[in-house]
């Protein structure tokens, strides 16, 4: 079973600025709301990152992460209008 880690300060900031937390993201991952896993488009600056494409309440969130053995380190949570159009419309 994969475990998830994140920066707690980032989690507080995301809750304040975007109204979503890593705990909510993990709940949606475990509920099977991941629609895709894509390679980070900027491989030069983020060579080890992939992006989870997650449906949260009929809107797509992109969650960059780094996979490490039995852990995933979640970097941030980005609501994506572009991915919502691509995956849900």
How many distinct folded domains?
A: 1
State which percent range the strand residues make up.
25-35%
The CATH class name reads Alpha Beta
Which regions have little confidence, pLDDT < 50, spanning 5+ residues?
none
Radius of gyration: 12 Å
| Termini Cα gap | 32 Å
CATH architecture: 2-Layer Sandwich
Give an overview of the whole structure.
The structure is a single chain. Helices cover 31% and strands 35% of the residues. It is an alpha+beta fold. It has helices at 8-18, 22-30, 81-88; strands at residues 3-5, 34-39, 49-55, 60-68, 71-74, 78-79. The chain has a single domain (3-88), classed as 2-Layer Sandwich (YaeB-like fold). β3 and β4 form a beta hairpin. The chain contains three helices and six strands, in the order βααβββββα. Strands 1, 2, 3, 4, 5 and 6 form a six-stranded mixed beta sheet that branches.
Write the layout of secondary structure elements.
Blueprint: E1 3-5, H1 8-18, H2 22-30, E2 34-39, E3 49-55, E4 60-68, E5 71-74, E6 78-79, H3 81-88
Parallel strand pairs: 1-5
Antiparallel strand pairs: 2-3, 3-4, 4-5, 4-6
